[in-house]
Structure formats: structure tokens, C-alpha cells
Amino acid sequence: MPKQQANWSPYDNNGGSCVAIAGADYCVIAADTRMSTGYNILTRDYSKICKLADKCVMASSGFQADVKALQKHLAARHLIYQHQHNKQMSCPAMAQLLSNTLYYKRFFPYYSFNVLGGLDNEGKGCVFTYDAVGSYEKVGYSSQGSGSTLIMPFLDNQLKSPSPLLLPVQDAVTPLAEAEAVDLVKTVFASASERDIYTGDKLEIVVINADGIRREYMDLRKD
Amino acid sequence: MFRNQYDTDVTTWSPAGRLFQVEYAMEAVKQGSAAIGLRSKTHIVLGCVNKANSELSSHQKKIFKVDDHIGVAIAGLTADGRVLSRYMRNECINYSFTYESPLPVGRLVVQLADKAQVCTQRSWKRPYGVGLLVAGLDESGAHLYYNCPSGNYFEYQAFAIGSRSQAAKTYLERRFKNFSDSSRDNLVKDALMAIRETLQGETLKSSICTVAVVGVGEPFHILDQETVQQMIDAFEIVGEQEGPAAEPDAAAAAAAGQEAAAADQGGSTEEGVAPMDI
């Protein structure tokens, strides 16, 4: 009998794009609000962004059922941390926890492509970017999801991140001001919506700085 | 307390139908420093006396946040209390994860009571030596429960446990009828007064007591020292206290108990009838 193939997949891709940009004292995390399956739109109004801790926010694209499960899992772990340590988790700590959580399911992964953004213990912006099984890196900016191939080269061009091969080692953090970073994000998503069919409808932007967390919305193309 | 041939094992009944190990565990609760709880329709206040071994050491933590809507104050073996708090926190987190809503307090105390009961029926275990005052808010309102090592639990309008708790209980018994409609601040004031009753003349300062509040629109949190000291000063609670109340001396179990372990033969149940929920 020839080897049987599966006639169903546990995964689905709900599309969408996420971006995060780190600044000297702020961090911008953004994602579109379109949720799709195949060539159909499920809803135009679904948030892919989740606040994990006071100064730590995650945006994930991919299979939203796995994303939701991952968010709940991390939220529960954060509660336990708060009970044990009497304080909120820092962004770098949450970054490591997310990596470990993803790798835990190395052989049945969360189909979730994440960017984690927030402020570190000194108040500087930080962005961490992941693959589906937990490989992660601290960067100055990143994008994930269906539009990332369109967005990432544009961010590279604009943010001129220093090469890690150069000496002396420079900070990955961007020299942009907060307002400029937010504008850049809006531009980037407007462009991505033009060519990526899975990105559009509305853009949700979250900005974390010393004053707290602020949320902004912008309309995108609905086609 | 008396030594006798039926008290070695938790799984040995005495001829009078008592489990002495369980009763000895309740005795451990009475030896711990006092903890009190009282509630109105919308708020519950927990308070405890901080006892430190010496001036050099810090005092033990006796009030724990279990979830945004539940907190617990303990008296007795604080190590056992810590372990049970961890269990309660886990149960709340798991329930929230599954049902996306807060664990009803009544469910939690039953689980806690069943956990305590197991330890009274296994020869290789010992009862938990801690009494817990569980304060929680859920859809059905504000609740205050007392869980004892025997596996019993009761709901109260107000209660006090630990050493010299009888003094606090007397104060609470006098005033509990007003608690239901009390404002949040008055409830805290009553809690501080009750704590003062257990101090037997010692001055009430925020450094020797801890107060925590949970209520409608107010997640469980422990009040910081300054706030407590301000309230003490504002209500002019600092003062002398009248003669200490008589302390229960007998082997009797918790007041108003219905199950077998609390049979009132031998020692008298000095504890009296604690105010029950109306």
C-alpha cells in the first residue's frame, strides 16, 4: 500500500502583516486588521496585537487560532511571574519566554510569526523578531507576515541600520523621532496594501513610551 | 492539650469519635498571629498582625493576592499557607485560561477544602497547619470564607483567627450588623480597630499590621504603609485597650462546625457561634 498522505492540515494562514520599530525612548508596533482565509476575507476588524506586560506588546501574523493560544499561554505565564516576583516582566525577559514557549512545540509548532516590541529596563525601545519555532534576535526594526517581503526592504532602506559586522558595535535603535516613526509605519502599510492582497482594511498602531501605551488607527485600502 | 494513645496517626479515631491530629492542626492555627476579615456588600477587607521573630528579621508575609478578585490571609504555619496560596493562584489562572472569566470564590474554597480533607484521610500525610481567610468578589457578590485544616469551610460576615483573635471577634460581633452597608473606608477603619483589639494595649502602627482590600471596581491589593498609617491617624485608633478577652483553651474545633471532628465533648466550645451570612 503506497504511503498515505494527510487529506487535511491542522494549519491555516489568516494572512496580514506586522511591523515594529524601536526608538531611543519609544517603540512602535503596528499590524493590519484584516483576517482572511484563502482568497476570502473573514473579517476586516481583527486585532493581531496583544499587550503581554506593562511595557511589552506582541504582534503576530499567521494562523490566528495558534496566535490566540500563544497569547493566552504567555498571559498566564506572566501572571505567575507577577505572583512570584512582585513585578511586571521586562521586555527582554518576555522575549526569552516567548522563544522558549515556541521551541517547546518544535515538533508541532505554533504557526505564528511574531514581533515583540517594548521598552527595556532602562526605558530604551527594543524589538525582537521571531520565526515559528522560537529563533529570535534583538533588532532595531522588523516586519513579519504576508507583506513582510514588501515591507522589510523598504524599512532597510529608510532606517539604515548599521551592519552588525562593523566595529565598533553600534546600537540597533533607530535615530527617528516618535512621530516620524509612526508616519513611516503608515507609509509602509499603505504601500504594502497596494500589492499584498492579504494586507489592508485598517491599520492598528500601538506606541509605547515613558508615558504609557497609546493606540491609533488608520484606514487602508479595502480591496 | 493532652497526650493520649489515639493521637499519633491522623487516620486513627479516638473512642469518642475524634481525630486528634486534625484538632492539633487547628491548634496550630490558634498559635499563629492574628488575621481578621470583614465584608460589606461591595468590599472585603483583610487585616493581619505582623509578628517578627526578632528586631533584626523582617516579618512573615501573611496576606497573599490570589487573583484580581481574590485574596487570602493566613494564620498558623505560614509555609503551609504559602503552598496553598500557590495552589489557589494556579487554580485561578487555569480557570481563567479555560473559561476567560474569573473563578467564582465559592468554587475555589470547595477545592481548597477538599484538598485539606485529603490530608485528614491518608496515613502518609499530615493536615495543613494553616487557617485561611479567603476574601473574594464574584458575580454573586462579596464573600469572606474561613477554611480550616479539618477540611471544613464557612462563610462569614466577619471573622478573626489566630492568637488573641477572640478579642477581635468580640469587637466584630458587636458591630457586624453595620458592615453590610458600610463604606469602604469605614470597613478599613473597623478592620484596624479589630486588629487593635488583638494587640492587648500595644500601640497600633502601620509597621505591625497589614491591610488589604478587594471590592467592586477595586482589584485585590495590599494597602501601603503610608496609607494605613494615615488611616490610623485619621481615625485616632491609637489608644489603650480594655481588659483582654478570655482565650479558648480546649480541644474543640471551629465554631458552628457540623461534621464529626468537632464533637463538643471534653473541652468546651468557647469560640461561640460566629456571625454567619444573613
Explain what you see.
The complex is a heterodimer of chains A (223) and B (278). Chain A is of the alpha+beta class and 223 residues long. Helix content of chain A is 30%, strand content 32%. Chain A has 4 helices and 12 strands, in the order ββββββααββββααββ. In chain A, helix 3 runs antiparallel to helix 4. The N and C termini of chain A lie far apart (47 Å). With 278 residues, chain B is an alpha+beta fold. In chain B, 31% of the residues lie in helices and 21% in strands. Chain B is built from 6 helices and 10 strands, in the order H-E-E-E-E-H-H-E-E-E-E-H-H-E-E-H. A 5-stranded antiparallel sheet of chain B has the order 8-1-2-9-10. A 5-stranded antiparallel sheet of chain B has the order 3-4-5-6-7. Chain B is globular. The C terminus of chain B is likely disordered.
Layout: helices, strands, pairs:
The complex is a heterodimer of chains A (223) and B (278).
Chain A: E1 17-22, E2 26-32, E3 35-37, E4 40-43, E5 49-53, E6 56-62, H1 64-85, H2 91-104, E7 112-119, E8 125-130, E9 136-139, E10 141-145, H3 148-159, H4 178-195, E11 202-209, E12 212-219
Antiparallel strand pairs in A: 1-2, 1-10, 2-11, 3-4, 5-6, 6-7, 7-8, 8-9, 11-12
Helix pairs in contact in A: 3-4
Chain B: H1 20-31, E1 35-39, E2 43-49, E3 63-67, E4 70-76, H2 78-99, H3 105-118, E5 130-138, E6 141-147, E7 153-155, E8 158-161, H4 165-175, H5 184-198, E9 209-215, E10 218-222, H6 225-235
Helix pairs in contact in B: 4-5
Main traits of this protein?
heterodimer, A: 223 residues, alpha+beta, 5-stranded antiparallel β-sheet, 4 helices, 32% strand, globular, B: 278 residues, 31% helix, disordered C terminus, Proteasome_alpha (chain B), cytoplasm (chain B)
